[in-house]
Write a structure and sequence with these properties.
Blueprint lengths: L3 E5 L6 H9 L5 E5 L2 H11 L9 E4 L2 E4 L1 H11 L7 H25 L4 H23 L12 H16 L8 H11 L2 H7 L26
Parallel strand pairs: 1-2
Antiparallel strand pairs: 1-3, 3-4
Helix pairs in contact: 1-6, 4-5, 4-6
Catalytic activity: RX + glutathione = an S-substituted glutathione + a halide anion + H(+)
Function: Conjugation of reduced glutathione to a wide number of exogenous and endogenous hydrophobic electrophiles.
Keywords: Transferase
């Protein structure tokens, strides 16, 4: 039986996992929820999950929730957690940074005072992007010479930032090359060029003030 990745029908904190699975050509059920009752009233209670939450990943007896735990599992399973100690450390740091900034971004776009906080977010974005450019340097990937699972998270984050503030990534040649290199990965191209890639969103849930899904009412 094919594994199942469960998450909302949006990019959020689950889409980078989808990218990794497509890259590794894993045949999986992409379970996407649009009805909160289906998750909260049924599956959350009945799938046998520890720490029940979205996203979840089920592969036979393996049942995992939480974005970081799923990435750690898939990274080990598919050899994307770094083949050397340095690559592992690079992966851990880049992944942690990407997740931190993604959550900080989410806090603003879901905030009831979004209109007041948006300008501060926009103003500070260039420095955040510059930090990723500095850390990437002249390497191909954030693991160094090898692709690691952090690259999937960083790609997703930078793409979202670049759509929120167009041009903020392209001004850095190394990040622009990184984005192009990632999108051109042979096993990812078909998915990236399909309407399933959610390239233009939705990025966030229906209550967000930017990039919101339209399947729920605010």
């Amino acid at each position: 039986m094919a594994p199942t990745l469960g998450y909302w029908e949006l990019r959020g904190l689950g889409h980078a996992i989808r990218l990794l699975l497509h890259y590794k050509e894993v045949e999986f059920e992409n379970k996407m929820y649009t009805d909160p009752q289906e998750w909260f009233g049924n599956d959350k209670l009945n799938l046998g999950l520890k720490w029940p939450n979205l996203p979840y990943y089920i592969d036979g007896d393996v049942k995992i929730t939480e974005t970081s735990a799923i990435f750690a599992h898939l990274g080990r399973k598919h050899g994307l957690d770094g083949s050397t100690e340095q690559a592992k450390m690079n992966n851990d740091m880049a992944y942690s940074a990407a997740l931190f900034h993604r959550i900080q971004f989410l806090r603003v776009v879901y905030d009831d005072n979004y209109d007041e906080k948006k300008d501060e977010l926009v103003a500070g974005l260039d420095d955040k992007v510059a930090q990723f450019s500095k850390e990437l340097g002249d390497q191909d990937w954030f693991g160094g010479s090898e692709l690691v699972y952090a690259d999937f998270c960083v790609y997703d984050l930078l793409d979202i930032w670049n759509q929120f503030k167009p041009g903020c990534v392209e001004k850095h040649d190394n990040l622009k090359a990184f984005m192009a290199r990632f999108a051109a990965l042979p096993t990812l191209q078909k998915f990236m060029n399909s309407d399933k890639s959610m390239k233009n969103g939705p990025f966030n849930g229906p209550n967000a003030h930017w990039g919101a899904a339209k399947w729920g009412a605010k």
